[in-house]
Write a structure and sequence with these properties.
Shape: elongated
CATH topology of the largest domain: Immunoglobulin-like
CATH architecture of the largest domain: Sandwich
CATH superfamily of the largest domain: glycosyl hydrolase (family 31)
Oligomer: single chain
Strand content: 25-35%
Distance between the termini: 66 Å
Number of helices: 5
Number of domains: 2
Largest sheet: 9 strands, antiparallel
Number of strands: 20
CATH class of the largest domain: Mainly Beta
C-alpha cells in the first residue's frame, strides 16, 4: 500500500487494482474517511449537507506506519488501521485504552458499510426517532416523512449520525436516502446501505458529550434564541372554533407565565388552499366587522401569540 500526503490534513491511500481512499484528520479525535469515486460526480444536484471546511481546523500531529498490506495512523487520542482490497476498505479503530470498532468494512461497489457491534454496545441518534432510545435491534430509514403522532422511526427529521456507548460517533456525509440496520437482521452487526453518492464518513472519538460537541462543531450550532422565545409555549396541532382563544384567555386569567401561544387552524389532511380564510374566519369579529379582537392584537404585539399564517402575522404587526 502507498500513502501520499495530500496536504496538512489529508493522506491518500492507494493499492494496485483497488479503490483509493482519502483520510483527513481535523483533530486528534475527529477524522474523515472517504472512498474516492472512480469517476467525478457530474450530477447537477447541489451539496445539501454543509460542513466546516478542512482548512478551518488547525494541523494535527499524525504518525503514519505504512506496511505492504496495511497502514496505521496514530494521533494523541486514537489509532486507525486501514487496508484496501478490490473495492473494500477495512478499518479498525482504537482509543489509547480500548477497542472502539473491531471490524468495519466499506464496500464502494455495493455502497454498503458493515460495522461489528460489541456485546452490550448501545446506539443512539439518527434524528427524531421514536421507536426506542437505544436503536440497537432497529432498522432506520434516513428519509424524512410526514409522520404526525408517529411512535415509530418514521419521522420528520432524519440525520445519518449516531453515537455509540463504545466511545465513538459516526456521521455518514451523504444526503441521499440510506438505511441503517442496527442489529435488526444480524444481531451483532450494524449495516448501512446507501442509495447513491459517496461512501464518506466522519468519525468522532470520546465520551458522548465530547462526540456531540465535535459533531456540532463540524455541522454547525444554532444561534441563541431571543429572550421571548424561552419559557412555556402553549400549542397543539388543531384548535377548533374559539378553542385557541379560550385557552389563551384561561391562561391569562390564571396569570400563567406564557411566552408564546401557538394558534393555528388546519383541516384534517394537512395544508389546504383556504387555510388563511378558515383561520381568519375562526377569529371573533368586533361590532364594526374588524376581525382583530383587542386581546388578540395585544398578545400578538407582545409576541405571545403566533398565528400560523403569513396573512395573520402581518395583520398583527
Amino acid at each position: 500500500m502507498i500513502v501520499m500526503r495530500e496536504d496538512e490534513h489529508s493522506f491518500r491511500i492507494t493499492r494496485a487494482e483497488s479503490v483509493e481512499a482519502l483520510v483527513t484528520f481535523l483533530s486528534p479525535t475527529t477524522f474523515r474517511v472517504r472512498i474516492l469515486p472512480l469517476e467525478p460526480d457530474t450530477s447537477a444536484l447541489p451539496e445539501y449537507v454543509t460542513t466546516k471546511s478542512d482548512e478551518s481546523y488547525p494541523p494535527v500531529d499524525v504518525r503514519v506506519d505504512a506496511q505492504p498490506n496495511e497502514v496505521t495512523f496514530n494521533t494523541s487520542a486514537a489509532i486507525l488501521n486501514l487496508s484496501l482490497e478490490d473495492q473494500v476498505l477495512s478499518l479498525e479503530l482504537r482509543s489509547r485504552d480500548k477497542v472502539l470498532i473491531d471490524g468495519w468494512d466499506i464496500d464502494a461497489g455495493e455502497r454498503v458499510a458493515r460495522i461489528e457491534l460489541q456485546s452490550g454496545e448501545r446506539i443512539y441518534g439518527f434524528g427524531d426517532k421514536r421507536a426506542a432510545m437505544d436503536q440497537r435491534g432497529q432498522k432506520i430509514d434516513i428519509v424524512n416523512r410526514d409522520a404526525f403522532a408517529s411512535e415509530s422511526n418514521q419521522s420528520y427529521k432524519s440525520v445519518p449520525f449516531y453515537m455509540s456507548s463504545a466511545g465513538y460517533g459516526l456521521f455518514f456525509h451523504n444526503y441521499r436516502p440510506s438505511t441503517f440496520d442496527v442489529g435488526a437482521s444480524v444481531k451483532n452487526r450494524l449495516q448501512l446501505k446507501a442509495s447513491g453518492g459517496e461512501m464518506d464518513f466522519y468519525i468522532f472519538v470520546g465520551a458522548m458529550k465530547e462526540i456531540l460537541s465535535q459533531f456540532t462543531e463540524l455541522t454547525g450550532r444554532p444561534a441563541m434564541l431571543p429572550l421571548w422565545a424561552f419559557g412555556y409555549h402553549q400549542g397543539k396541532a388543531t384548535y377548533r372554533g374559539r378553542e385557541g382563544l379560550d385557552v389563551g384567555q384561561q391562561m391569562r386569567a390564571a396569570q400563567a407565565a406564557v411566552r408564546r401561544h401557538l394558534l393555528r387552524r388546519l383541516r384534517p389532511g394537512g395544508h389546504q388552499p383556504d387555510l388563511h380564510r378558515r383561520a381568519v374566519g375562526a377569529l371573533p369579529r368586533q361590532a364594526d366587522g374588524r376581525i382583530w379582537h383587542a386581546d388578540v392584537r395585544d398578545l400578538a404585539r407582545q409576541r405571545r401569540l403566533c398565528l400560523c399564517s403569513t396573512t395573520l402575522r402581518r395583520a398583527a404587526s
